[in-house]
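seq:
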Amino acid sequence: MNNNVKELRETILRISGVDPKKCMRCGKCSGACPSYEEMEYHPHQFVYMVDKGQIDKLMNSKSLYRCLTCYACLERCPRGVEPSKLIEAVRLMVIRQQGMNHMKPDDLPAKLDEEMPQQALVAAMRKYSK
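struct:
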């Protein structure tokens, strides 16, 4: 693993808070996934690939956008590994590499809308400020 891949992997692990080493690759997370048929890489494969530093394959995969973030994978995991959080972290890295991670607290007033739930703004700030 080169330094750039190691750094990317460490950033993904920090953002997600997931320890992929806990995964025993039983596949229960993938079995519970409602998007299983649509995914090139399934949740248990995602965890393994992040652990092994195969981040580029994941960042270029359509599977990244097939995850519904429903946390069914988390519910089925006997070891508490959270594949959906890893997928979210990889998505965030793609957004950052595309240069779309420019939200700052001063940008919020312009984005306020009476019909937008406050939770959406808080979620956006969490996602774009890590």
